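Problem 12. The chain below contains 209 residues. Write out its predicted structure in token notation.
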Amino acid sequence: MVAGKELKKMSEPIDFYFDFSSPYGFIAAMQIERVAARANRTVRWRPFLLGAVFKKVGQSPLEHDLKREYINKLDVFRSARMRGLVIKTPRGWPEHSIPPARIFYWIEPRDPAEAARYAHAAYTAYWIDGNSTADADIAVDVAARLGLDRAQAAAAIQAPAIKQRLVEENEAVIARGVFGSPFIFVDGEPFWGSDRLDQVAIRLEKGSV
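Solution.
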């Protein structure tokens, strides 16, 4: 009986919460599948809007000018290089990332794996190619390159049911205590930040950090 519970626990997906406008979310997104695969886990991708979280708590993560300059001009690029990535800041950044988040939740109910591929491709379009996260045409282009119907993807961005799904996802992350991107849960244990992936890997391998 204990062994069965342990097997179920070990098969639980890793919950990966992220905002497409988050550079640290991008860095983690490029690695999370490999980290999970080494432990025979899958990843449950969950985009959300950091703006909804900050509105709820009444603050911004970059209110301090020095912190903004440190992150935007130094730390993001350095952190990416440490992981073998050369990033390009999206045009207009920081902006919301509503279009790709809505398209993701249009895809996800029928094909979670395809939705994860979309998330990966969209992140690349933003943080490698430098496209605006708020540009609906870019989000639709990414879907079309994956073979999805362009017109349906564009319509999904404005579909009331998809809009409501994203609202509910934002409410769910707030209720779960998510306050940044990326935010990762391993068997309910939270890890915040792309610099915690080594801890995530240890947690998966040994059961604790």
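Discussion. Residues 2-206 form a domain with the Glutaredoxin fold (CATH 3.40.30.10). Students who got a different answer should revisit the alignment rule from Section 12.3.
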